[in-house]
Amino acid sequence: MSITRRKVLAGSAVGAASLASGLAAPAIAANEPIKIGYLPALTGPSSSTGIGINRGTVLAVDEINAAGGIDGRKIELIVRDTQSDPTKAVNAVAELTQRQKVAIIFGPLNSGEALAATPLIARDKVPMLHPCWVDELIDVKKYPMAFRIAPTNTQVGGGANYYVVDVLKLKKVAVISDTTGYGTASVNTYVPMLKAKGAEVVYTNHVDAANPDLKPELLRMQSAGAQAIMPWSVNAGFLSRILNTRGAMGWDVPVVGQTTLGSGQTKALLDKPENWNKVYSNNFRQVCFAGGKLPARAEEFVDRLKKAKVEMGDTLLWWIALGWDGAKMMGETLKAAGPKADDIVAHWNKTKDWPGVYGTVTWTPEQHNGFPDTEVVMCEVNSLKDGAFNLAPGYAV
Amino acid sequence: MTDATAPAPPARALSLARIEGALPWIALGLVGLLLPLLDDSYIGVIAQRAYIYWILSAGLNLVVGYAGQIAIGWVSMLTLGAYTTAALTAGTATPAWHPYLALVAGGAVGALAGVVVGLPALRLRTFYFAMTTLGFATIVTQVALAWKDVTGGGVGTPGPVFPWPFDPGWGFYYFCFILAALATWMTANLAASRFGRALVAIRDAEVAAEASGVAKPRLLIAVFLFAGALGGVAGGLFASLQSYITPDAFTFEMSVLFFIAILIGGRGSILGPALGTIVLTVLPEFAAPLVQWSTFLYAALLLLIVLIIPGGIADLLDYKNRRPLERHREIVPQPELLARVLDRRTGGEVLSLSDVELSFGGVRAIAGLDLEIRPGEVHGLIGPNGSGKTTTLNVISGYYAPEAGQVRLGDAVLPPRAPHLRADYRIARTFQTPRLIGGASVLDNVMIGGTIDGEGSFAESLLTLPRHRRDEKRLREAAMLALAVVGLDQLAAVRADRLQHSELRFMEIARALMLRPACLMLDEPAAGLSADEIRRLGALIVAISREGTAVLLVEHHADLIFDICDRVTVLNLGKVLAAGTPAEIRSHREVVSAYLGA
Amino acid sequence: MFASIVSYGLAVGAVYALIGITYNVMFSASRVFSFTAGMLGMLGGVLGALFIGKLGLPAIVGLVLVLACGAVLGLVTELVTVRPVLKSIEQHLYVLSTLAFALMVQQFVAVEWGTEAQPFPRLIAIGPGWLDQQFWLPMLACAVTIVGLELLYRKTLIGRAFLAIAEDSYAARALGLPETQLRMASFALAGVIGTLAGFTGAEMLLAFFGNQSILNFYGFVPVALGGMGSNRGAVVGGLALGLFQQAANFLVGGIFAAVAVFAVFIIVLLLRPEGLAGGSAARRV
């Protein structure tokens, strides 16, 4: 009996070893596909954004491949669902860089996973394209191969702050977030920025997103004289409660903040549609309606989505656009510079005004955050149509 | 006196068992050592994760598997260790520490947390304790979120990077491997020591453990401390592997994973939970489409294990205990060996009760009882059901405190409500229903009786230092001798729950003999025995008393009482109805009418 | 402010109290503390949102369906996780089988229903404000349950049979009471109470798979504090907990409120392990 057990254990060790070595280093022959690693969170608690982005990414890769790929080589998108779990993200990074030997990695989107993945990907010297907004991810010295194709949290907050202080011309502001990484980091960054602009922050707090009653918080804001509420959270339940409480109190102040304020999920949780009035969320000039029309690139993109029958009703246009831009950027880079890491990085360092649907991207060797300040704008959330919104009132068009 | 040489422990059987036990570990160790040769960092990362989870689970195994405490929210140890190590290395709370020192600090914080979590276990029932561990895990995460200056709050903080030779990559891999091996070694050592046996005894036969002198609070706290330390160290390593930690990395699913790995592996085993941990860490990497169902599948697996194979993998692999036993076994005690077990005493002490009273609610169980049990005598205690016989035993044992009166051994008053101190007075007993550890061997069950004779400390057992080894050798020999005395030495290696009822009764006596008792109390030892066995039991009891032990025998078998007792006391309704020699009692009118019948 | 704390606190406290009663009913019938109490509460909200919100059934029909599902789940719990394990002497196995089952259901809901909290439809058009029906519905449910249970236990034969089984199952069996059927009925009743709690509380707590863990813990605190088996203790404990939690939320914020609740829980338990109103432990030797 002991012999049997020993044999079984030894046999499985040998089996595992041979399996591993067989998959270790695929030969890169001339028409082997070029592999891109992709780390979305398609399941788990914070997955709605990931699902939206995924549609754009997959569509772009399919189109590139249908048009002949990169000089005859197809792009293979190796997807590893991180499940909104940083430990799975770390495992996936090891697999993508070591075993699959991908040329570029796109993602992760969520902050906890991105923060864990970035140093590891940098250690493995693989170029990385970030859709995530957390500021700490980009550092040209620590992570020379990491580039961001989305705005930073600072830019996003800056856009909101600009709207409240410079467009709406309000002075007293209440800032509230949930207790997640994203929420706390946002408030910590934006409150000083507001003060630097001369605004008076009369209330600031982090509240557990599961807290069912936000009335005490809003009453505190009201008694402090707040003229605007700025919430920072991606939790639709939390945001909807703020809006519902504001409506129940009959308190007529603008709510200016995180993009999720305008999501379908938030809308579904509202007590009455009026609660969605005077709510402005982050959005991006390239994908907003201005004077009733989308900018040309976005218009064309929406037609493309309709033709490809991509579902838009339950997500946001800019998510799909972000995913699309990411894949497009990677495809064009591979075509122009080839799959070697240093070539890719060199190419990216020279990017100027790249015309994405989501944003116009510029990178330099000193600045790896590619999204322009001017394109971070606020939109009116109750103008949702085909996944996009109207530019908020007051901007010089 | 015949010169009966003490039987050696079944040497060949046991040593084969020990080698059998080592083979899987050698295989695992070799795989671990040679894995880097594959030069596949992906496998390396998965393996490191398995080692780290195992370090934590090895400690949790002692808490859940051995001590039987349902500690569900154990991820809190990982969280605390990770944040401590990360914060100290990053210098957010104090000037930056060296990573290795920070790792030690992480272990220390884990140890402290282990004690905090473990203290409620001493007073709370199973479910309540489980809930407190869940609450604790939530609290730890909340604190990590709130204490922004130190932990980075929701944004998190970078993990420590260990310097050469354990730097990230294969160096760190070997670091995790070595620490995992150490954790395995230490927990296995503890499991095979008197502390490990005592833990299992507390879990499965708490009353018997107390009677053998096991002090539950001290032992449990020591185990929680050690397990917490392992969890904290695992946390520090985890933070390094992740390179960056955020509160959302420490999920409830992780707690569930650790917990289930141990139960799948089997309680009371080290190899089982190790294999369970490895499987549960590696499995999600293979079953990609099922990955969002992973916790569902783990829970389903747990349900299956609980319903079908509660013993887990370890039970399935336990071939030794599937070998059929001899069918018609006879228990043949060897009383002649007793001289080597008991220190022959002259002028031993009298166990006396004076004016003891005890009521339960409105019922007077004992109403003024005087009793004297003299060394060298067998004193019988008989009476109808409900007359207070077992209650009297329990008062002497210290499970109940008398409302009036005292229990004395010689001149010393025995402290009430302190059953685990009776062993120090060399008062031993058996129980009305045999209390045994079903999953342990007969030898292990008997060795529990000698727990207080060990000299080595908890730490010495962890590292198998010489005193521990001496203890084990002594205890083993003494237990084998005791088993030979009661006639069960052939069954030493057999699982106790495979024994017949009568064999269990004799096993309890062997366990009691380990204390070299000055006073031995037997609670209906003849119940369920055949006539032959009762005769042999009687001879054994007499032989024990002739070595100078004071024997108190509570029994219903009137024949046995009158055959072997030197004195008999009859209880009725909590009071002494009659006391005297067997002949006097037999003809006592009231005794006959109340109890014996014509 | 004050009105908000009181109305919210009492309402959510009533939900906790009902979950505590769910624990008690299962415990009385089997000496088993089941992890499924929180699960039932969570499902009350999720199934209610499914039937009324997504499938568009009228509210009363939805409620009846939800309660029926609760009863069925209670029966399944008894059959699959409690009965097979009762024969074993080892107490901890009960905890594990119910835990495993509850986890399976929770994960199933997380995957199939979603991990985001979904809205629960408004049941009656009264409110908003501190008299909003989302507040007094749970309190009404709690009152109805308490009165109903009292009537059941004191006035009906089956209720007294429940009490007999809880008091001394050996004696009850010796008297010929069908222990198994009574236990099944108890678990079905617990299923109804648990889902009722979740259903009436869902306008506040939303239809969210994470409610299971929350209700498991916060529904247990009243039982621990009030004494296991004591429904009155559970009600008092639940309402007190709800008020305390809301007051703490308002005064010190969410994180410290959770720590405060936990600290109180631990301290009370360590001082009085049987709870403030519970009975003493049985003889073990």
Structural account:
The complex is a heterotrimer of chains A (397), B (598) and C (285). Chain A is of the alpha/beta class. Helices cover 43% and strands 16% of the residues of chain A. Chain A is globular and about 70 Å long. The termini of chain A are far apart. With 285 residues, chain C is mainly alpha-helical. In chain C, 77% of the residues lie in helices and 0% in strands. Chain C has eleven helices and no strands. Chain C is globular, with a radius of gyration of 18 Å. The chains are: A alpha/beta (397), B alpha/beta (598), C mainly alpha (285). Chains in contact: A-B, A-C, B-C. Chains A and B meet through helix 1, helix 3, helix 4 and helix 6 of A and helix 1, helix 2 and strand 2 of B.
Can you lay out the helices and strands and say which pair or pack?
The complex is a heterotrimer of chains A (397), B (598) and C (285).
Chain A: H1 2-24, E1 34-38, H2 48-66, E2 75-79, H3 86-99, E3 104-106, H4 111-123, E4 128-130, E5 146-148, H5 153-167, E6 172-177, H6 181-196, E7 200-206, H7 215-223, E8 228-232, H8 236-249, E9 255-257, H9 264-268, E10 279-284, H10 296-307, H11 317-337, H12 341-349, E11 354-355, E12 360-361, E13 376-385, E14 388-391
Parallel strand pairs in A: 1-2, 1-3, 3-4, 4-5, 6-7, 6-8, 9-10
Antiparallel strand pairs in A: 10-13, 11-12, 13-14
Helix pairs in contact in A: 2-11, 3-4, 5-6, 11-12
Chain B: H1 11-34, H2 41-66, H3 75-90, H4 99-118, H5 126-146, H6 148-151, E1 157-158, H7 170-191, H8 194-204, H9 206-211, H10 216-242, E2 244-245, H11 252-265, H12 271-286, H13 294-307, H14 312-316, H15 338-341, E3 351-360, E4 363-373, E5 378-382, H16 389-397, E6 404-409, E7 412-413, E8 427-429, H17 442-448, H18 458-462, H19 466-486, H20 501-513, E9 519-523, H21 531-546, E10 550-554, H22 558-564, E11 567-572, E12 575-580, H23 582-587, H24 589-596
Parallel strand pairs in B: 5-10, 5-11, 8-9, 9-10
Antiparallel strand pairs in B: 1-2, 3-4, 3-6, 6-7, 11-12
Chain C: H1 2-30, H2 36-54, H3 59-86, H4 92-112, H5 133-155, H6 157-167, H7 169-174, H8 179-205, H9 211-226, H10 231-252, H11 254-271
Helix pairs in contact in C: 1-2, 1-5, 1-6, 1-8, 1-9, 1-10, 2-3, 2-4, 2-8, 2-9, 3-4, 3-8, 5-6, 5-8, 6-8, 9-10, 10-11
